[in-house]
Amino acid sequence: MNRRIPRGLLALLLFPLPACASLGGDVTTVQADQVKMQGSLRTTSNNSYTLHEIQTSAGVAVKEYVSTSGKVFAVTWQGPFHPDLRQLLGTYFDAFTQAEQAQRAQRRGRGPVQIQQPGLVVQVAGHMRAFLGKAYVPQMLPAGVRAEDIR
Amino acid sequence: MKPARLQRLLGLSLAAALAATAGCSGGSSGITTGGGGSGSTTTNMQAFTVNTGPAAASPYVNGAFTSVTVCAPGSTTNCQTIGGILLDTGSSGLRILSSALTISPTQQTRGNGVLIAECLPFVDGFTWGPVQTVDMTIAGEQAKSLPIQVINGSFSTIPNSCSSNGAPENDLSSLGANGILGIGSFPEDCGGGCTESGAGNPGLYYACTGANCEVTTESLSSQLQNPIILFPTDNNGVIFQLDSVSGAQTSVSGSLIFGIGTQSNNGLGSATVYGLDPELGNFTTMFNGQTYSDLAFLDTGSNAIYFLGSNTVNIPTCTDVTFWYCPTTTQNLTATNQAFDGGASGPVDFVVGNADTLTTNENDAAVNGLAGPSSEPSMFAFDWGLPFFFGRKVYTSIEGQNTPAGTGPYVAY
Fold first, then answer.
1. If we measure between CA atoms, which residue out of A116, A110, A149, A113 comes closest to residue A133?
2. Do the strands B237-242 and B345-352 form a parallel or antiparallel pair, or are they unpaired?
3. Of A110, A147, B157, B316, whose CB has the highest number of CB atoms within 10 Å?
4. Which of B161, B198, B299 comes nearest A84 by C-beta?
5. CA-closest candidate to residue B384, choices B324, B305, B301
6. Nearest to B123 among A109, A116, A124 (CB)
7. How far is residue B146's CA from residue B93's CA, in Å, rounded to a whole number?
8. What angle do CA B381, B382, B388 make, to 5 degrees?
9. What is the rounded distance in angstroms from the CA atom of residue B282 to the CA atom of residue B296?
10. What is the pTM (predicted TM-score) of this model?
11. Can you tell me the distance from the alpha carbon of B326 to that of B122, in angstroms, rounded to the nearest whole number?
């Protein structure tokens, strides 16, 4: 049986809308993430932020939270693989990778990622074929938006 | 509804409507197997030990290690037994550090001079290296012509699309093992996505010419296989049996028993069967009145029980590390596991101790009570790592394989 998604066909359902930037970046910069991930996009807004949801062709659901000032303050992902984290985390990618390596050594074993730095929170959980991830910059959360709102 | 679920439903309905034109490749692994009780007498038991592993500079805590014998395909003399191989029910496929290999396996190629390599995303990074073929033996079981990943960060050039997965785990200190034996719920590591060309391909397999590697398609049978499905018998799953542990000890012994209901020593007995989501390999855990649907899994490759988060369970993390819990007194907790389809369920008692205290002595490799947060708030997971397995006999059946309790994937204990 085939339990994969007919991805080329999902593309027919796209709404071609303005896309997002990387964590900490500016929403008006590029449609880089959507283009890079070759995904579809859905956008919803409330008073505090705009949520851009990208469904990548490889089956990963990516969400980017953009403040009313146009900055990406949080991203999440869920799917059988990681999305392109260099693209998604932008200037935070190197700090993420270094923290991940440091934590791997401290943990003396394998397990989910739990980075809690003053300027960066990243959590990655799951296993082969089923990953969950979340990253945000605490200082950039708009007033009234709590960490638990990022899901 | 979770995006993944919505996506699956969309996928199913679209697939049904469009299968005739979608050019979908089949999902069969090409491996078929009979049911249980064949009366095989193959030696199907392999001992393992929870110890500090082969990386002396970074002693492992809660890792289950064993050895495998690998031979060049078809050879009985060009062989090597490699210890320090981490047992991982959270992945599928055999991966061995290049630095630990002395034999020369057969490189998987695609035409002249084009070498196949793989980038495998783990939760905390990735492994990179060429795909090569060996005959693997463990206990009396043999997986012939088994594609493995030879982990080697110096092979060709790691593509940006690979290193974008996070931290590299391509050497002994970062891997913590000479290799990883993935004996999880899936018959191959990537699955259907890697057989597709274009944007749907997640980019795990690469075709490399010199220093240049490009994402390529890889058939299901050429992908890294769960070695168990290549065994002639006892190929429908595995039992992971481990002695109990109280607090922290230097080591503990266990047995891997291959096959489920195929021999006199691997029947299900009174074990409860928990069916898994065939796509994600997850089941459901309920805790403190909340249901974490399709977000729980058993994983010998996780070195603690990683669940929920500090605010949710009201247990502080340690002051020095954010990834373990440090309650002032040991917490005896109970959760309920439930099959993905909502069928079988049963309670699980588990312990959360003070990780700082439990890991004071780095020679203590087997630590019950080691636990930490998974993810919170809002994106929860219940990662039942190695401490779950202490004092248990846990069955892992493989997707699509027949067993006396039905077709995998499921776990049972």
1. A113
2. unpaired
3. A110
4. B161
5. B305
6. A124
7. 9
8. 160
9. 5
10. 0.89
11. 26
Q: Which long-range CB contacts under 8 A does B76-79 form with residues at least 24 apart? A: B78/B103, B78/B104, B79/B103
DSSP per position, A74-118: EEEEEESS---HHHHHGGGHHHHHHHHHHHHHHHTS---EEEEET
Torsion angle of C-alpha atoms A141, A142, A146, A151, degrees rounded to 10: -70
Interfacial B residues in 79-118 facing A (CB < 8 Å): 86, 90-92
Whether the ω angle into residue A16 lies within 30 degrees of 0, i.e. cis, is no
- Pairing mode, strands B106-107 and B179-183: unpaired
A115 in contact with chain B, both atoms CB, cutoff 8 A: yes
Among candidate residues B87, B95, B311, B317, the one with its CA nearest the CA of residue B189: B95
The reply to whether B160 touches chain A by the CB within 8 Å rule is yes
- Cα separation, B85 vs B96, in Å, equals 8
Is A110 within 8 Å of B18 when comparing Cβ atoms? Answer: no
C-beta contacts of B73-76 below 8 A and 24+ residues apart: B73/B105, B73/B106, B73/B133, B73/B134, B73/B135, B73/B144, B73/B145, B74/B135, B75/B135
Q: Is B336 on the interface with A (CB under 8 A)?
A: no
In chain B, positions 245-264, which contact chain A (CB-CB < 8 Å)? Answer: none
Interface of A with B in 41-80 (CB under 8 A): 53, 55-61, 76, 78-80
**For residue B22, what is the enclosing H or E element?**
helix B3-22
**Cβ B374 vs Cβ B7: under 8 Å:** no
Does residue A144 sit at the B interface (CB-CB below 8 Å)? Answer: no
- pLDDT (tens digit, 0 to 9) for every residue of chain B, 413 residues total? 344 443 443 333 333 333 333 322 333 333 333 344 556 688 999 999 999 999 998 899 999 999 999 999 999 999 999 999 999 999 999 999 999 999 999 999 998 899 999 999 999 999 999 999 999 999 999 999 999 999 999 999 999 999 999 999 999 999 999 999 999 999 999 999 999 999 899 999 999 999 999 999 999 999 999 999 999 999 999 999 999 999 999 999 999 999 999 999 999 999 999 999 999 999 999 999 999 999 999 999 999 999 999 999 999 999 999 999 999 999 999 999 999 999 999 999 999 999 999 999 999 999 999 999 997 766 778 999 999 999 999 999 999 999 999 999 999 99
